[in-house]
From TrEMBL:
Keywords: Disulfide bond, Electron transport, Endoplasmic reticulum, FAD, Flavoprotein, Glycoprotein, Membrane, Oxidoreductase, Redox-active center, Signal, Transport. It is a peripheral membrane protein. It is found in: Endoplasmic reticulum membrane. This is Endoplasmic reticulum oxidoreductin 1. Pfam families: ERO1. May function both as a monomer and a homodimer.
């Protein structure tokens, strides 16, 4: 429960690269949200077909983490409550894991750019 406000503060500190508020307030908001959910489910289906168990585990965790992050950041426009979405323990774990992996990747990229 304490993690979600931190994630929201982190999201608000990042620069806006596209106007997601406009996207989800537009007449096509329901279609856009359904497309995001469909693509997340499709990524999960692809991960189930991976042969290597280790790759399947890490890929599934990251896929689920991205889906949870999208749900937290871009809640369904049909949400009747202003309360933040409730995360299960598994969702919280994969979200933190995915944020760590993305952060580490960005750090490696920064270090690589400094070398060259």
């Amino acid at each position: 429960e304490a993690l979600l406000p931190e994630v929201r503060r982190f999201a608000s500190s990042c620069p806006k690269t596209f106007a997601e508020d406009d996207l989800f307030a537009s007449p096509v908001a329901d279609d856009a949200w359904a497309e995001i959910q469909r693509r997340s489910e499709h990524m999960a289906e692809i991960m189930r077909c991976v042969g290597c168990d280790r790759c399947k585990l890490w890929g599934t965790m990251q896929t689920q983490g991205l889906a949870v992050a999208l749900r937290v950041l871009f809640e369904s426009p049909r949400a009747d409550s202003p309360a933040p979405p409730q995360l299960t323990r598994q969702e919280a774990v994969v979200l933190v894991h995915t944020l760590e992996r993305l952060s580490t990747s960005l750090q490696y990229l920064r270090e690589f750019r400094e070398m060259h």
